[in-house]
């Protein structure tokens, strides 16, 4: 465990290390590309929030970043090195974690197994057990339903298990695809608090949120994605305040 | 293009009708009748498999029941064959509906198992119930056309099977453009969702199951009358059932003519392998490998190769923001 | 159509080789015996050709594989007769395939001599051109054994018998033929089991037999189940005075499969390698030369078919598919008695052979013919040694 | 009474054999969602290899296992990586039936070509004796089969349910993307999963060779029975399949000694249909119903 | 008039009492909101009402007819439509086919009727346009993004023209600009006389759109009333908003 970069639990790495998508063109099968020259940069200790209409390519962008989808052209840079085409497994070892959109618990496994699998790459049992205590505290339902089949939990509970699973490692770059979807206000708060905590710890966070006003409030940088390109980007608060943008992408009435 | 696509089926139909008169000998009539029989059964199988995605490897159970039903009515009760055939098919359909109620309770893999069990069970019954069926000694059914010589009998059955095929095709076509068919497709995709949208899934599945059994049972009945001797282990054979699946799949389960095309290829190809490689069992390997290749490289069947490829979603040329702006009052 | 009935066969056919069409189960359930029959046919053709052929024409055998499927067996004969226009057809293996095959031959007026359709049902279909080229039909296979047991002095005679039979017309025929004769003589049937071909576990059947402690155990078997039954009986310590099984013990793989348990098992057999029927030793020698192994019953049965047809062809001096010639051949077969490697054969009006099977027994690890006494190589060992 | 006891005892032992033969199936079906029709064909492939090892080198069937088990494991990995992995996941059930049906035919054809259609068997002296306890005979070959089954199942259970690999395998099948994202090498894991399934076939084949004669088409007889076992047990539950196997073995044995063989075989299917009517997910656990 | 009424609905899974004596009454022609913390039984309540789960106890009445143990398709025919929280579409059917499957089917005549009736197709396109996914008509549903699937599901339910519409988190994963439109849509449909019951965690949407809000906790309603009242209710603040 001497090489800090290859240890997923070694915590935040130096501040200049960033995730960057550079001119990424990507798509599915033979269809026309979904991402058409997308560039996004995330610095350590910074939350970058991607917003945009449905089907703009936000999830696709995250999949390219985490290695689930190979780009047709363009580069993915992680901590200053070109990681284009590496498997998710390799990227995870480099400290990158990705929480998928929708529901991705292992339905026919218990909550316990799900959470433990979050630490699949870690052999050190003691460290895992310590993390388990932390996530149990954050999400009481994880502790309460420790032995239940994860697929039987309610939608929001599953989302909590997923987030807990992702927190088992302490990655340095995190991709979150609508982490608050399906969560009640209290749990949404917990998730946003965690994101904030991560940022303070120097983690680079790339966040996709439809709860856009809320997300832009806490993010450092906002990017509006449409048709596979960054439409507008800038300091998050400024974007949130732009009335034209608000009407087109962020919903009519401002947060109450 | 349009005219061609209209004329094509007509041309095929004319060829099919003329076939027995065009070939030089009765063996080819016989082989043709057998192929048409398989085509009818595969098309019928596809009423269940193609729409609902339930893979039955056990349709030979209905084939066998239809055959034995007809044979028994004719030999034991002296019912005229033209009556025995529909009566037996109706009975099998009723039975299939009953079995369907239990069978379609399971999905996917388990249903395959159930269908295999169904053949094994019917085989055991037919074989074990010796006093009724003649058991392993078989059942001999008298020819319905005692006046015709063998070749003429083949001609007669060629047209009977052709009529059955036409009926099966027509049914498939009709179902495919009805709401019933759409409901079946929905079942294939997501049963609970379909149910919540008002598709009575259980009734639909049982109906599809029974309908598909009906034509197979009719084919079985005709087979009994034509072939004249029935033996449980051969009519209740999983291989007959798998042939239907293979043919449908090869041709393409989403297409009206898929199973027919599959039958036209598989039946002669089987002959060919047997004659070319028949000295050893390597012809089984050849068949097996062909099957594997089809599954790997033509999973949607041959016809899918000639029809539209799946295109991904189109990307709008204006941004969502602009479009939204336009429709919002 | 070229094969319209009554259309004259082209005289050109009379030249060239005599083509004989045969479908056999070369794959599938019956592939092993099917192969055996094929070898018998080949040995016969080889001999005939070496001697100048049939009526001076070479013999050519056309084989088709029916994959043990009655559907295929029909289409094979259909195509052999109508497309290949063969001069003669020979039968396939197994009663289950003979019936559909004979149907086709019958409807094209072809003579149908077959090597392996022994079940009684074969002869009840009203076939007029079918002949079974072996000494006896299934029901009569055990006749010598039945006679022997019935004639034993009262104190040695078995009192009870157990029967277990495969659900198969041939296998059941053999067992029930014996059962009916023994029962008539007062030997009580204590177990009478039929099992479907899917059966793989014979221990419970053996347990049932063990519980009845019979003096005689009879298996109406093919191969797999014969081995299964013998092993199970041995494991469950059933010790009858006589154990008889059809088919299985006559195959060369049997003793290896059951080890020492083969000792003293009896079995009906239609042919013996050591018998000195005319032509038998010649066949044995020719077989060894062609296939480099010992001949067996199936090959002999195939060979017998050839011998019988050959005799008829030579007698009526025609060999072509025309109904006239086929009629002549059929009539001739009905009349005469034929010298074959399984002994002299004659047929009744339904094509049933009128002779009897011999009984073989493993004695000292070797197959001996034990009944009838005049043909026997040693005497029947009774009661048998314990397993 | 002894007869009934005898039937019962034999049923339990035979049930053990069924459990062993079906264990691989419940792995593919339940865990990997693949309908593996070729499993019995692989069983007999293993039986033939055992036969060759025995006749050519005089090796005891069980001593051949150190060779055949790794061989079959590798074969399983190859089958998964080269064939199964290429099937579209949204139509896996249908396609895998056909694919493995093709495999079964391929194997049968090859066996028929190399070994001919003749019956083969491996008989060991120890397999013809039996242990007698209170008038009930327990054949050694069945005792051996039962013990091997118990051992294999215990190992399989440990691998699937308790081990890290087992968790990774289940995760891979349940949500492949998520599994990749927690660092599971999903392709390798799925391959190994199939390998484990075929490894059980190697063991099963050795036992089968010892117990019954076989020929290339023997496998067809087993498909229906083994599949009935795993449905009654509940797809995906190794323990369930084992319990169901013993249950069905006992029912078969008892029906055989009290009624007849046709009914005994029929019992498998009767139980199958009963299971579907009463508890479609199987009697001993099984998979979560995919609802909502 | 009452649209939907439940009396003491109860459902326990093992030890978890997901719905616990829920008595709820919805008036015809209203937009009702159903809120409550994660795991409070909202989805289970939906599942019971739509017949996908059988309750252990209690009754469901729709327009004064007892529909408690009816199969889901009957309930759908009666005029209740629903969406799923974990969005469900028919993956290998095209978007348009997804819409056409949803056409309400009752009698045998309807059943055997042709599928691509011109009127139905037009209707389907209309709904797709209103969801902003009309350009995806020929794409297979599995190729849509999560939010697009969500919109398709909503459009398909509306295609069946239900009188009572149960929506489970319609806004989850949907772009905020579209949420506004969905809100507008719901209002329009409501004006036509349809009744809604909407589960949602997006408080802006719930409070802005609903006439009546029911708050669930531990499987039963703990408060209900107009949004302005519910929002101030201390029990709600504690159980749900977590303040
Ligand atoms: N099939 C089931 N088996 C076991 N427990 C279940 C099942 N379905 C739901 N539950 C449990 O019932 C409770 C209520 O679940 P439900 O899905 O109704 O909650 P919900 O209110 O919809 O929550 P959310 O806002 O998270 O969607 C939860 O604790 C859940 O774990
Ligand atoms: N598996 C797939 N195959 C083909 N096309 C896809 C696939 N997944 C997504 N697409 C298409 O790619 C485009 C972008 O999808 P993506 O999931 O990245 O959108 P998104 O911005 O995340 O939307 P949402 O907010 O709805 O989640 C969409 O037009 C979608 O239809
Ligand atoms: C004597 C055997 C060759 C007979 C064959 N087994 C049959 O089924 O008739
Ligand atoms: Mg997305
Ligand atoms: Mg919910």
Automatic annotation (TrEMBL), chain A:
**Name under which the protein is recorded:** Branched-chain amino acid transport system ATP-binding protein
Where on the tree of life does the source sit, at the highest rank?
Answer: Bacteria
Taxonomy-wise, where does this protein's organism fall, top ranks first?
Bacteria, Bacillati, Actinomycetota, Actinomycetes, Streptosporangiales
Annotated organism of origin: Nonomuraea maritima
A single GO molecular function, which one?
ATP binding
**What are the record keywords, sorted?**
Amino-acid transport, ATP-binding, Nucleotide-binding, Transport
Q: Which Pfam families match?
A: ABC_tran
Q: Cross-referenced PROSITE patterns, in alphabetical order?
A: ABC_TRANSPORTER_2
Q: What PANTHER family does the database record attribute to this sequence? A: ABC TRANSPORTER ATP-BINDING PROTEIN, HIGH-AFFINITY BRANCHED-CHAIN AMINO ACID TRANSPORT ATP-BINDING PROTEIN LIVF
* Family of the protein in this entry: Belongs to the ABC transporter superfamily.
Residue limits of the ABC transporter domain? 19-252
What InterPro entries does the record tag this protein with?
AAA+_ATPase, ABC_transporter-like_ATP-bd, BCAA_Transport_ATP-bd_LivF, P-loop_NTPase
Q: Which GO terms describe its biological process?
A: L-amino acid transport
User: Quick check: keyword tRNA-binding in the entry?
Assistant: no
From TrEMBL, chain B:
Where does the UniProt entry say this protein principally localizes?
membrane
Q: Which UniProt keywords apply?
A: Cell membrane, Membrane, Transmembrane, Transmembrane helix
Transmembrane region(s): 55-75, 81-104, 111-129, 156-175, 206-227, 233-253, 260-278, 284-304
Origin: domain of life? Bacteria
* Keyword Chloroplast listed: no
Keyword set includes Transmembrane: yes
Q: Name one Pfam family in it.
A: BPD_transp_2
- InterPro entries named in the record: ABC_transp_permease (IPR001851), LivM-like (IPR043428)
Q: Where in the cell is it found?
A: Cell membrane
Any one Gene Ontology cellular component term annotated for this protein: plasma membrane
- Give membrane topology per the record: Multi-pass membrane protein
For molecular function, the Gene Ontology terms on record are: branched-chain amino acid transmembrane transporter activity
* Protein name per Swiss-Prot or TrEMBL: Branched-chain amino acid transport system permease protein
UniProtKB/TrEMBL annotation, chain D:
Q: How does it sit in the membrane?
A: Multi-pass membrane protein
Check the record and name the CDD domains matching this protein. Answer: TM_PBP1_LivH_like
* GO BP annotations listed: amino acid transport
State the Gene Ontology terms under molecular function.
Answer: transmembrane transporter activity
**Pfam entry (one):** BPD_transp_2
Q: Which InterPro entries match?
A: ABC_transp_permease, BCAA_transport_permease
Record localization: Cell membrane
GO cellular-component term (any): plasma membrane
Entry keywords, A to Z = Amino-acid transport, Cell membrane, Membrane, Transmembrane, Transmembrane helix, Transport
Q: List the transmembrane segments.
A: 29-50, 62-80, 92-115, 143-161, 189-214, 226-248, 254-278
Q: Specify where it is mainly localized.
A: membrane
Protein family per UniProt: Belongs to the binding-protein-dependent transport system permease family. LivHM subfamily.
**What is the protein named?**
Branched-chain amino acid transport system permease protein
Q: Which organism is it from?
A: Nonomuraea maritima
From TrEMBL, chain E:
GO MF annotation, one: ATP hydrolysis activity
Which SUPFAM superfamilies does its entry note?
P-loop containing nucleoside triphosphate hydrolases (SSF52540)
Q: Which keywords label this protein?
A: ATP-binding, Nucleotide-binding, Transport
Which SMART domains does this one have?
AAA (SM00382)
Chain ranges of the ABC transporter domain: 4-243
Q: Cellular component GO terms, alphabetically?
A: plasma membrane
Q: Does the keyword Heme apply?
A: no
What's the protein here called? Branched-chain amino acid transport system ATP-binding protein/branched-chain amino acid transport system permease protein
